Amino acid sequence: MFCKKCGTLYNPKEGPCPKCSTEDIKYEPKAMSEEEAKRLRKKSWIQLLIGIPAFIGVIYGIIYLMNLIKQ
User: Fold this and answer.
1) What is the pLDDT of residues 34-70, one digit of tens each?
2) Which residues have a Cβ under 8 Å from the Cβ of 27 and sit 6 or more positions away?
3) Which of 11, 26, 50, 56 lies 20 to 30 Å from 67 when distance is taken between CA atoms?
4) Are 55 and 40 a contacting pair, CB within 8 Å?
5) What pLDDT, in 10s, does the model give residues 30-43?
6) With contact defined as beta carbons under 8 Å apart, do 1 and 10 qualify?
7) What whole-number distance in Å separates Cα of residue 45 and Cα of residue 49?
8) Greater confidence, 14 or 6?
9) Closest by alpha carbon to 20, among 4, 44, 40?
10) Does the predicted model carry a pTM greater than 0.70?
11) Which residues, in sequence order, are bridge partners of residue 27?
12) Angle CA(19)–CA(4)–CA(29) in degrees, nearest 5?
């Protein structure tokens, strides 16, 4: 399960979030302005649009090198 307060992955069968329950200071998410949310959303899309094709290119590059070595 994903803790909505701190972002930690944990098993709910073992009890509450281990990070939130052991820390003295509780994590409180800050409110974002509409401008900041829009800027972060745009940044995330740019990262996706560059990162996914780059990852595919790296995979193709590895396959190409493996074929060169095999021959």
Assistant:
1) 888 899 899 999 999 999 999 999 999 999 999 999 8
2) 5, 6, 20
3) 50
4) no
5) 677 888 889 989 99
6) yes
7) 6
8) 14
9) 4
10) no
11) none
12) 90
